[in-house]
Design brief:
Elements (H helix, E strand, L loop, with lengths): L4 E3 H5 L6 H8 L3 E3 L7 H16 L8 E5 L10 H9 L5 E5 L5 H15 L5 E7 L12 H4 L5 E7 L8 E9 L7 E2 L13 H6 L5 E2 L1 H22 L9 E4 L4 H10 L11 H4 L6 H11 L8 E8 L3 E8 L1
Parallel strand pairs: 3-4, 3-5, 10-11
Antiparallel strand pairs: 1-2, 5-6, 7-12, 8-9, 11-12
This protein binds coenzyme A.
The site of coenzyme A (COA) has 20 residues, from α2, α6, α8 and β11.
């Protein structure tokens, strides 16, 4: 996480909002913003180094990098190669994926399939965001600006020596019919120029969100994805030890837990401290859950994501 903490009170000094409004609607108390000199690939490389140390894996063992972000350093090439360069990785395979808040779950599913197929043996999956760069800090953008934060999280995916432990199944979905309810329209290659003065004046370079519609999708799709994972493995919600939901909004997590008939303590949340960190949200929440002592060997853990696209999915694992 970047060091700079931005509280709700700090935001209230920039736009018409309040600590109470933000906490009541989202649960968020503070988030982190990267310093201007720090890029998404810097945060990604730091997270990858931490993951390698934690997994006791040497950099030379990594044969694939899957990089998820919605805040790339540049339009192209993808940020993955910049992260690769910073890590000093050799000429391995590098993928960039653009599934926004579902990016980490999509990346894990890809890594799981690659390892199972034997194409790659040890894969770094990283989600990294510097969303503070594209927030409209005026009243026009306050519904979005108060929610998002910066950060990165990574995991090393490989084979397990212990039968039954690891990823059990992955379930991914997308539906582009309402792509424009959560998007950043410009710059884009649809029409020249990629961005115009008129676009800048209209704020088309800031994320746009129809919050209520997004909320409705999230509370429908995330329980669906969790149930799909349980059904595929002949399990029920009561078998779950912990759910790591994408940290979009505390109210969304609470609504999903309620729909599944699970007590709130089976849903881990850290949005209060980090806001919505998009592709970094699930690995950061997982790390927070581990630090809180909530992950036990053999425990059934479900990661569930939802994001722009619209995209959603789940990964069920035996910890
Ligand atoms: C964004 C969200 C918190 C807004 O909450 P909401 O209850 O839907 O609020 P609305 O958008 O209907 O806005 C209610 C009022 O608050 C105002 N408002 C919006 N942002 C505000 C802010 N930061 N501070 C104060 N007031 C704000 C609106 O202008 C509106 O005012 P009005 O009634 O005078 O028109 C909520 O819709 C949400 O969390 N949606 C899902 C977002 C999400 O998860 N996105 C990421 C998906 S990966």
């Amino acid at each position: 996480m970047p060091e700079r903490v931005v509280t709700n009170h700090d935001l209230a000094a920039l736009m018409t909002t309040s600590h109470d409004w933000i906490v009541e609607r989202s649960g968020i108390v503070e988030r982190r913003w990267a310093d201007p000199s720090v890029t998404g690939s810097d945060l990604a490389a730091d997270a990858c180094r931490a993951a390698l140390a934690d997994a006791r894996v040497e950099i030379g063992e990594i044969d694939c990098l899957i990089h998820a972000t919605l805040s790339p350093d540049h339009e192209f090439p993808g940020t993955g190669v910049f992260t690769q360069r910073k890590l000093g990785l050799g000429p391995i395979a590098v993928f960039d994926i653009r599934q926004q808040c579902s990016g980490f779950v999509y990346g894990l599913a890809m890594a799981d399939s690659f390892v199972r197929s034997g194409l790659y043996r040890k894969i770094l999956v990283v989600g990294a965001e510097v969303q503070s760069r594209a927030l409209d800090l005026t009243d026009r953008g306050r519904n979005v600006a108060v929610l998002f934060g910066d950060g990165a999280g990574a995991a090393v995916v490989g084979t397990s020596d212990e039968p039954g432990r690891g990823i059990l199944s992955c379930h991914l979905h997308a539906d582009g019919r309402e792509a424009e309810i959560l998007w950043l329209e410009k710059p884009g290659f649809k029409n020249p120029p990629l961005i115009s003065i008129a676009d800048l004046e209209a704020g088309r370079h800031f994320p746009f969100m129809e919050g209520r519609k997004v909320f409705k999708h999230a509370v429908t799709r995330m329980p669906e994805a969790i149930r799909e994972a349980l059904d595929a493995n002949g399990l029920t919600a009561n078998d779950l030890d912990l759910v790591i939901p994408h940290q979009a909004n505390l109210r969304i997590s609470e609504a999903v837990a309620q729909q599944l008939g699970l007590p709130p303590e089976k849903f881990h949340n850290n949005i209060q401290k980090v806001g919505n960190t998009t592709a970094a949200s699930i690995p950061l929440c997982l790390l927070d859950a581990r630090a809180a002592g909530k992950l036990h060997p053999g425990g059934l853990v479900c990661l569930a994501a939802f994001g722009a696209g619209l995209t959603w999915g789940s990964v069920l694992m035996r910890w």
